[in-house]
Amino acid sequence: MQAHELLSRIAHLSLQHGRARAASTAAVMVGLVVLLAVTRSARRPVVGAAAVAVPVTAVIGGAVWAAYRPLPNQIPLTGYIWIWLAVGILVFAAALLLRKPGVRRAGVIAVAAAAAAAAAVGQVNAEVGVFPTVGSLVGHRPPTSVQPVSFGDVPGFEDAVQSGTPLDSAWTRPVRTPGSGVVTEVEIPGTESGFAARPAVLYLPPAYLTSPRAVLPVLVMIAGQPGRPQDWFSSGRLGSTVDAYAARHDGLAPVVVVIDALGSQDANPLCLDSALGNAATYVARDVPAWIETSLQVSHDPAQWAIGGFSYGGTCSIQLAVNYPRIFPTFLDFLGQDEPSLGDHAGTVAATFGGDEHAFAAVNPADVLKTRQFPELTGVFVAGAADDEYRPQQQRMFAAARAAGLNVRYYELPGGHEGATWSAALEREMDWTGRQLGLTS
C-alpha cells in the first residue's frame, strides 16, 4: 500500500462509531487504572478531583448554552458525564504531580492522564459529531456523500426554528447538525390539475435535518425530455453540487424539489395546461401546495425559484412569466425559445387545436412582447457548441431583457449535454443562494 493511500484510510477512520468508541472507552479505563496504580493513597485525591470536576463541568455547560442560545442544549447528559470524567482525571493527575513524584512516575502520570482525558473528550465528540473522522481533526473533510432515505424517515415539523434575511447572518449551526444532506423520493399528487406525475426527488440539506431547523428557501427543478427527475442527480450531479454548497455555508442550502413535469419518460405536455394535460397547474399549484404543507420551508415567494435543463429550462421561463408571483426567480439551462413538439404548427394543433391566440397567451416569447416583468430575475445558460439551442437561448435572453427582467446570459464549454447543465448548476449555486436570501 502506498503512503498516500494509507494516509487517506487513516483520515477517513470514523471517530463516532464502532471501534473508535470502544477504543476510547478502553483508553479511559486503562488510564484510570494506571493513575490509581501509581499512588497508594488515592482515595482522598480521587474524591477531591470528582468534587472539583462538578462545578467545572457546570461552567462548561453554561458556556455551551450561552454560545448556542436560544438553541436547546447541544450536549446530551451522557456527554456531560464524560466531560466531568475528563476534568476529574486531569484534576486527579495534577494532585498526584503536586506530590513531586520521581521523573519516571511523573511521566507515567502525565501520559496516562492525557490519554484518558482525551479519550473521554472523544466520547463527547462521538455524541455531537464535531469531528466525524481522524482527518477532520486537522481540517480535512471527506467529499460529501448524500444519503438516500425514505420520506417517512425525514424529520417532521419542528417547533424551534431559525430564520432571517440573509439567513446565514441569523443562523447558528447546532452541534449535532449532520455533515451532509439526504435525498428522498415522494409522490406529489395532482390534486387540482389531475396530472399523473411520477415521484419527485427531494434534496434536504443538513440545516433541514437538525433542531432547531433553519427556515430554508425552495428550488423547484425539472429535468429534460425524455427524462425523469433522477437525471438531475446522475448526469446533473445535483446532490453533490448542492451538498458541497451546504458544506461551505454551515449546512445551509435550498430545499430542492425535483419534480416530474412529463408524466412518463417519453411524454411531452410542454409545461402547459392544454389538450396534453394540465402540467402548468401541476407545477404552479399542486407542487407549491404540497411543499408548503409537507415541508417546513419559507412561504415567501421571494425565496422560491424554478429551474431546469433543456425541456426543464423551457419550463422554468414559462412558469416564471406565467406565474411570476410564485416563481420570481428562474434558472434556464439550455432551454428553447418556445415550448415545442418539433414544429410550431404541429405544437399549436396538438395543444390548443390550432388556436394561435390560446398558444400565444401562455408562450413566454409572446407574453414578453406585451408585458413588463421587472419583478423577475433569472439566468440563461447555453452550451457554446450547442448550435440548436444556443441561438434560442440568445433570443429568449434578448426578449426577457426587453421586457424589463433582471437577467444574465452566458455560455459554457460543451453542447446539449449533462456536463454543461451540471456545470451551470455548480456555477449558479452562489448566485442562487444570494437571490433566495441564504447569504448576503
* Strand elements, count: 13
Output the number of helix runs: 14
CATH superfamily of the largest domain: Alpha/Beta hydrolase fold, catalytic domain
Oligomer: single chain
Protein name: Putative esterase
Keywords: Membrane, Transmembrane, Transmembrane helix
Pfam family, one: Esterase
InterPro entries: AB_hydrolase_fold, Esterase-like, Mycobacterial_A85_antigen
Describe the overall structure.
By secondary structure, the protein is an alpha/beta fold. It has 2 domains: 3-129, no CATH class; 147-435, Rossmann fold, CATH 3.40.50. Helix content is 45%, strand content 12%. The chain contains 14 helices and 13 strands. It has helices at residues 3-11, 19-37, 43-68, 77-98, 103-128, 167-170, 238-248, 279-294, 311-322, 344-352, 356-360, 364-370, 389-402, 418-435, and strands at residues 147-148, 161-162, 182-186, 200-204, 213-214, 218-222, 255-259, 273-274, 277-278, 304-309, 329-333, 377-383, 406-412. The protein has a 9-stranded mixed beta sheet, sandwiched between helices. It has a two-stranded parallel sheet with strand order 2-5. Strands 8-9 form a two-stranded antiparallel ribbon. α2 (19-37) packs antiparallel against α5 (103-128), α4 (77-98) packs antiparallel against α5 and α7 (238-248) runs parallel beside α14 (418-435). The longest helix is centred in the N-terminal third of the chain and has 26 residues, at 43-68. The protein is elongated and about 100 Å long. The model has no long low-confidence stretch (mean pLDDT 89). GO terms for molecular function: acyltransferase activity, transferring groups other than amino-acyl groups. Pfam families: Esterase. This is Putative esterase. InterPro entries: AB_hydrolase_fold, Esterase-like, Mycobacterial_A85_antigen. The chain crosses the membrane at residues 20-39, 46-68, 80-98, 105-124.
